[in-house]
Design brief:
With about 200 residues, this protein is mainly α. The protein has helices spanning about 1-20, 25-40, 40-70, 85-105, 110-130, 135-150, 160-170, 180-200. The longest helix has 29 residues, at about 40-70.
């Protein structure tokens, strides 16, 4: 009885962790923070948000809702790898449009590079997932945490402790294997550091 209760508790905690660190949510929350951190005032920040919202929020969310309603996808995790390509293509196109708009708006380089690094990371992991179910949860959080440490300094290194917690949750839920969560971490870390480095930012590896 105690073993069953413990398993249920572990499963519940893993579900909560997975929802809190849902990939699009993690990336978008930090983007919103950066928008208002780097904008000159609230008005400018709101303008950037209004321009970005269709590409980063509304189009992907509406497409997912329609896809779920029509049965093209069966859960929010896109657990069936065959269901991922079309949704990921829409998300990649949204990030591409967002990167282009930010570039032509001449926003601070740090904000642009964050979104652009997310775009490259999403493209690479999307290609990988066509043949191997890499973990987007660990990839997305690794990308964000790496960006935080590049932009804010290694005093934010403790945020990396979130990654093994997320990896544990995905394994407990049987959404991914050990190597799939490790793959998400490694790929996101390398790509995020490489993109920031190419734009002249000092990195820590």
């Amino acid at each position: 009885m105690k073993d069953n209760a413990l398993r249920e508790y572990r499963h519940l905690v893993a579900e909560v962790v997975s929802w809190v660190f849902f990939p699009p949510l993690v990336g978008t929350v930090f983007f919103i923070f950066l928008v208002f951190w780097y904008s000159s005032d609230i008005t400018e920040g709101l303008k950037w948000m209004i321009l970005m919202s269709p590409f980063l929020l509304f189009i992907p969310l509406i497409f997912f809702a329609v896809s779920y309603k029509l049965g093209w996808v069966h859960d929010i995790d896109l657990s069936n790898r065959e269901e991922r390509p079309v949704f990921l293509l829409v998300f990649v196109l949204g990030l591409t449009a967002a990167s282009a708009v930010l570039y032509f708006m001449n926003v601070p380089t740090k904000l642009f590079v964050y979104v652009f690094s997310g775009l490259i990371m999403t493209i690479v992991t999307s290609i990988i997932t066509l043949n191997w179910k890499i973990s987007f949860h660990t990839a997305a959080t690794t990308s964000v945490v790496t960006a935080i440490n590049i932009l804010g300094g290694l005093r934010f290194a403790p945020f990396f402790l979130l990654i093994p917690i997320i990896a544990w949750a995905r394994i407990v839920l049987k959404k991914h294997t050990f190597w799939q969560v490790v793959g998400g971490f490694v790929v996101a870390l390398i790509i995020t550091e490489a993109v920031f480095y190419l734009f002249g930012f000092p990195v820590f590896i």
